[in-house]
Design goal:
single chain; three-stranded mixed sheet; binds beta-D-fucopyranose
């Protein structure tokens, strides 16, 4: 089918990743509290196909089936997320035992299947009362998050293999608070910068809480991509540098170097120097989510679009589109961007960088996602995408990046935020009427890849 893959270093781990809100459903089960996304999705018109996450992939009831599918894939790691509103229905205070028990069962099921559980503590589903008290604009949220992390870690630290405190905090700041595409739907532009600092502080506090409870292998899942300027003009170069600070280095630098890129610390709230000590608590790995590179240029006074999200005219950069293959979400397919960013991180952070893991990579391929007459799903585009990105990771390792794992987003189809069910990222298809699971061709491809890598050991 495809060229044989080069051999990855011994100990390199293959995984998959998903999140609570996108897969679980059962939003009212066992005392779960309401979240920002529950409210956001209830507004007519916000979800592309008018679908709801009420059932989603049904993971809450069907997790044994999904875990068995990932076991049969031969994967090492199953990344999933814990819903803060299941553990603390109001965000703080009384713990909901049934919520904790659910994840306890999930973790045990993964271990019994020979998989390494990798919980993310926060994949954007903020408990509603926390949002009503100011959400990530409020410093208190970081403190509540640290307490929540301690509750979960005390229960699972003996069994979780990897920990990711916050998923893609930059997406929450930009889409959730700056330009309003995702929950909680605020449009504060640069006034949203406190959400950056407070999420970073939450990251640091939770790393400390997890470690205090005995948790091992703590990292991140930050989206990083090269930012390529539209041209070599000084204006485009400046716009690209500005954009890279805002999407990449404003997160990576505080976590790995204990400082903000120039010009940011002064505007952040609270005792920033003390907070940076907490934020830069050493990590065991640095997780990178990658889908597409970024191309930006100097602003023209007109809004521009990143996928379906509008970058307002007043931003000091605009997104540039190039011709060529695109993902289902409209992002540029460019595997070499993954190689480049892994090497850029290696160079930029040097000794301060722990081993890297690609914590998310994948694509949706509308038009190739439904079973054909033979009952199979021939998602060749996904296979090509994943194959090329796996090779890019290998190339980055050859060129000096210390990458220890690659986790595909996602084991099954799931609720793709505002895209609803129109975008399927799974290696396994889900029929949303029956919740029947059908492995796609990409599932067999990944299974063979993993098997072949093992045979070479
Ligand atoms: C990432 C998110 C994940 C999913 C994929 C496609 O940005 O972390 O939840 O939406 O994109």
């Amino acid at each position: 089918m495809t060229r044989p893959l080069p051999r990855f270093p011994a100990g390199f781990e293959w995984g998959v990743g998903a999140s609570a809100y996108q897969t679980e459903g059962a939003l009212d089960a066992d005392g779960r509290g309401r979240s920002t996304w529950d409210v956001f999705c209830e507004h007519p018109g916000r979800i592309a196909d008018g679908s709801t996450p009420a059932t989603s992939a049904g993971f809450y009831d069907r997790y044994p089936e999904d875990i068995a599918l990932v076991r049969d894939l031969g994967a090492d790691v199953y990344r999933f997320s814990i819903a803060w509103p299941r553990i603390l229905p109001t965000g703080s205070g009384e713990v909901n035992a049934k919520g904790l028990d659910f994840y306890d069962r999930v973790v045990d099921e993964m271990l019994a299947a020979g998989l390494k559980p990798a919980p993310t503590l926060y994949h954007w589903d903020t408990p509603l009362p926390i949002e009503e008290a100011g959400g990530w604009m409020n410093r208190d949220t970081a403190l509540r998050f640290g307490e929540y992390a301690a509750v979960v870690a005390e229960r699972l630290a003996d069994r979780a293999a990897y920990w990711i405190p916050l998923n893609e905090p930059v997406v929450l700041s930009l889409l959730g608070y700056a330009i309003g595409g995702y929950a909680p739907g605020q449009e504060l532009l640069f006034e949203s910068l406190p959400t950056v600092h407070h999420q970073l502080l939450a990251h640091g506090l939770s790393v400390q809480a997890i470690r205090a409870a005995g948790g091992r292998s703590i990292g991140t899942a930050n989206p990083h991509a090269p930012t390529w300027p539209g041209s070599d003009s000084p204006e485009d170069l400046a716009a690209a540098a500005f954009s890279a600070d805002l999407t990449d280095w404003i997160w990576g630098d505080p976590i790995l170097l204990g400082r903000y890129p120039e010009g940011y610390a002064e505007g952040m709230p609270g005792p920033v120097a003390e907070d940076l000590e907490v934020i830069s608590t050493p990590l065991d790995f640095y997780g990178v989510n990658y889908y597409s590179p970024q191309r930006v240029a100097a602003p023209t006074g007109e809004p521009s679009l990143i996928q379906e999200h509008e970058i307002p005219a007043e931003m000091p950069f605009r997104a540039v589109e190039v011709d060529g293959p695109k993902t289902g979400l409209g992002g540029e397919i460019n595997p070499d961007g993954l190689r480049e960013i892994l090497l850029t991180l290696t160079e930029r952070y040097g000794e301060s960088l722990p081993p890297l893991i690609v914590t998310e990579n994948g694509t949706s391929q509308p038009g190739t996602e439904e079973p054909g007459p033979d009952g199979r799903i021939h998602d060749d585009g996904r296979i090509d995408y994943l194959d090329a990105h796996v090779r890019a990771v290998h190339q980055a390792i050859e060129e000096g990046a210390d990458v220890r794992g690659y986790w595909v987003w996602s084991p099954t189809d799931n609720f793709e935020w505002t895209y609803g069910f129109t975008q399927r990222f799974g290696l396994v298809h889900i029929d949303y009427d029956t919740l029947v699971r059908t492995p796609k061709d990409s599932y067999s491809w990944y299974q063979q890849l993993i098997g072949a890598q093992r045979d070479q050991l």
